[in-house]
Amino acid sequence: MRGSFIFASFALKKDTRDKKTHLLRFVCIGIVFCILFSSWITSSRVGSPGLDFFTKIIWLNFWLVTLAGIGFFSTSITEEKEEETLPLLKLAGINTFALLTGKSSVRALRMILLLMGQLPFLLLSVSLGGITPLQIYATLIAMIGYIILISNFALLCSVYAKRSGEAIALMLTALFFYFLFPTLQYHLTVNLQSRGYLTLTDSISSSSKYLFVISQEHSVVEQIKQILTTGYSGSILSSQVISNVSLGILFFTLAWFIFDFCTEKTTINVSGSRKFQSHKRFMNSRPGTNAFVWKEFQFSGGGLKATLLKLILYPTLIIVIVGGGILFDRYTTSSSIQSFTWKELVSAALLLLFVSFIVECTIYASRIFREERIQKMIPLLSILPCSMFRIAYEKVGGIILSLIPVCLTIILVILIVPESITYLTSSGLYSLVPLMIIQFCIFLHLLAYYSLMVRWGALAFAIGTFILVESCATPLLQLFYFMFQDTIGEAGVLLPAFYLSLVCCFILQMLIAGRFHQIAAEE
């Protein structure tokens, strides 16, 4: 057993001596103090400031652990497959158990240590009032059980998948079925029961309710909500903790058993798959003078064929949502279900189009420099007679061309039904639209920067960094609001945040250009 833990002990020693790890822990503690300061500012308007402070911290930790499961844990083995270093590790005498322990369990241990490092500072919330030490310990134990579950399932996905992208897709699918699917199918079943299509005693309704109850009992989200209720006096070791730890051990064992079968052929035929994909593309056009615009439009956006397909798909989606909603309400006789007008259905379709726009921008931004990074083409790009900024802006131009279908559909819906946009802005958040747009631009810049920093998981790192930065900026915005609320009003928060966001976009562009030159010099 001593030899089998050599790789794990090496990973732990490397982690202990890495300055970036300790810097990350200090940053996490600094974020805790920033949120503590924010809770102290709002303590006069909050009944339980300690509970408010702890709730912010624990949900921030939950999202960061989930993002780590998507982009950090799920690439533990696939990165070795892509770099074709698994045969070398096996040749060095490292057995399967040591490899899995060193590559995955150490990562989970690092995340647990980051969580436990916050414990002395989280106990400050007891002095602020509204929470007990039992609730703090129970919440941390629930989070540790969730870390064990998600890290080991990500390990199983990483062992099974051939690429990191496949492992990330499997993780996203699993998280959807773990958190969202039981609730969605239960509410759908209740809706069908109220409309008379199902009864309370049939097998579909019983199975749906049973699945929903089981998922709620073993979900870390519901467990945290239950722990944070007033007067909680339950046990630290809940059924959620026991089930999450047991499933984590089961997933680790499955990954151990299938490791040799899934890693026998680690060579990935990248060139063949690229040639196959390139023949499927619509390539009748020529680059002309704007080669990078053409390249981004053809390869990342799918070219003219994908554009025409989206021009048909998006209007069809609107027709299906609006027409299907009207027909569904027309042919149901239940009066307990609220009926929706066609304008409200159009607003729902418009909201879905905005979501599609965000998803497309996120995908394109994460892939804008990915192919050049993988194929090591950045050194060749650096010797071209044009600046890196021009190359980047031309690639952005190709992305904008790929976004034309969804933008045209949004404009068409607004022109046909102008009232649809009023339903989305009737909540009083109309003045925040410019700030939300510039914040989304910061996120896209951050995503493009991380695509140059890491091979996989750029989206998870970008979301995590964005959440952390926004959490730290919240006390500063509150100070601006208290200073200028009597003279400037709402603009006292919006204008400084807008200008700071513009500065952040400029700084990120400088960092992207610097990273370009650094990669070109290293390769």
Automatic annotation (TrEMBL):
Domain of life, per lineage: Bacteria
TM region positions: 23-41, 53-73, 112-131, 137-161, 168-188, 241-259, 308-328, 348-365, 399-417, 429-450, 456-481, 493-513
Protein name: ABC-2 family transporter protein
The organism's taxonomic lineage, starting at the top: Bacteria, Pseudomonadati, Planctomycetota, Planctomycetia, Planctomycetales
Organism in which the protein naturally occurs: Gimesia maris
Keyword Translocase belongs to the record: no
Keywords from the named record: Membrane, Transmembrane, Transmembrane helix
Keyword Membrane: yes
